[in-house]
Specification:
The chain has 13 helices and 4 strands. By secondary structure, it is of the alpha+beta class. It has 2 domains: 80 residues, Glutaredoxin, CATH 3.40.30.10; 173 residues, Glutathione S-transferase Yfyf (Class Pi), Chain A, domain 2 (Up-down Bundle). A 4-stranded mixed β-sheet has the order 2-1-3-4, with helices on one face. Helix 1 packs parallel to helix 3, helix 5 packs parallel to helix 9 and helix 6 runs antiparallel to helix 7. The N and C termini lie far apart (51 Å). It binds glutathione (GSH). Glutathione binds next to helix 1 and helix 3.
Length: 267
């Protein structure tokens, strides 16, 4: 079995797949699976060659024995189907539907929400701030899926209203993690079993932690805090977050904590 992953070290969607690969007994990049690093800063995800395998112009893309797979949620479900060891989906149909509801929620709410502070605090200052309006408009036009997102952001990043709404959505996600751990008996979202829901939301919470938004859940969501500590201690998490995989490590020159940025911007 040959697995190739077109990915980026610090992309949360690539990290979702790396955690799942590790849970499935394939922890090591360039040993258990072949990594093709796509440099998003150099727009390697927008080359004609890459767009042939992923017309959405995003990472990750997985090639398994010649079959091309895109969309991180579809990829992790596929991995759970083709590698039966260590199942990551509940057997009970009701619980399985519950996990899938979580997967849809993760795509709808925290995944887009995390993009807002990621771009506002790191990617806009690191990549786009120097662009002229015209250069930025030309870049946005090239994006198969995110044209509006970039147009709304501008090269200066997002403003207070967008960042605050994203924070509300992450807080809601944390409350729901806390609620379901308590309802299902923990230590994971669906109960005893570590499922695709945990694997998919892990990198998003980690990104918020890396950006310094830990204050959104610290103090009053004890089950969720314990879940996050358990997650970070898990071998699959350590495998997926190898050295250099955090966004703070990718752009140390622009990194400031959320609190520092908020103090500076006055919100
Ligand atoms: N729905 C897609 C989203 C993938 C995605 O947005 N990937 C980001 C990195 S996490 C990307 O490639 N961004 C490129 C860009 O912003 O230009 C999935 O889950 O695979």
């Amino acid at each position: 079995m040959t697995i190739e992953l077109y990915q980026s070290h610090h992309s949360t969607c690539s990290q979702k797949v790396r955690i799942t690969l590790a849970e499935k007994g394939l922890p090591e990049k360039d040993k258990d699976w072949i990594a093709h690093e796509i440099n998003l800063g150099k727009f390697e995800h927008l080359t004609p060659e890459y767009l042939k395998i992923n017309p959405n112009g995003v990472v990750p893309t997985m090639i398994h024995d010649g079959s091309v797979l895109i969309e991180s949620s579809a990829i992790v479900e596929y991995l759970d189907d083709v590698i039966p060891d260590n199942p990551m989906s509940p057997e009970d149909p009701v619980a399985r539907a519950g996990m899938r509801a979580w997967m849809r929620y993760i795509e709808e709410v925290p995944t887009p929400a995390v993009r807002v502070p990621t771009f506002a605090n790191m990617l806009a200052p690191a990549r786009y701030l120097e662009y002229s309006d015209e250069e930025f408009a030309t870049h946005a036009d090239r994006l198969p899926l995110r044209k509006r997102f970039y147009q709304r952001m501008t090269q200066k990043g997002f403003g207070e209203a967008d960042v605050n709404y994203a924070k509300e959505q992450i807080r809601q996600t944390c409350e729901r993690i806390d609620r379901d751990i308590s309802a299902n008996g923990g230590p994971w979202i669906m109960g005893e079993q570590f499922t695709l829901a945990d694997a998919l939301v892990a990198s998003l919470i980690d990104r918020m932690d890396d950006l310094g938004y830990t204050y959104l859940w610290e103090g009053d969501l004890p089950a969720m805090e314990e879940w996050f500590a358990n997650l970070q201690a898990r071998p699959s998490f350590q495998a997926a977050f190898y050295s250099g995989a955090k966004i703070s490590e990718r752009y140390p020159e622009v990194y400031r904590t959320a609190r520092e940025i908020e103090a500076e911007r006055g919100y």
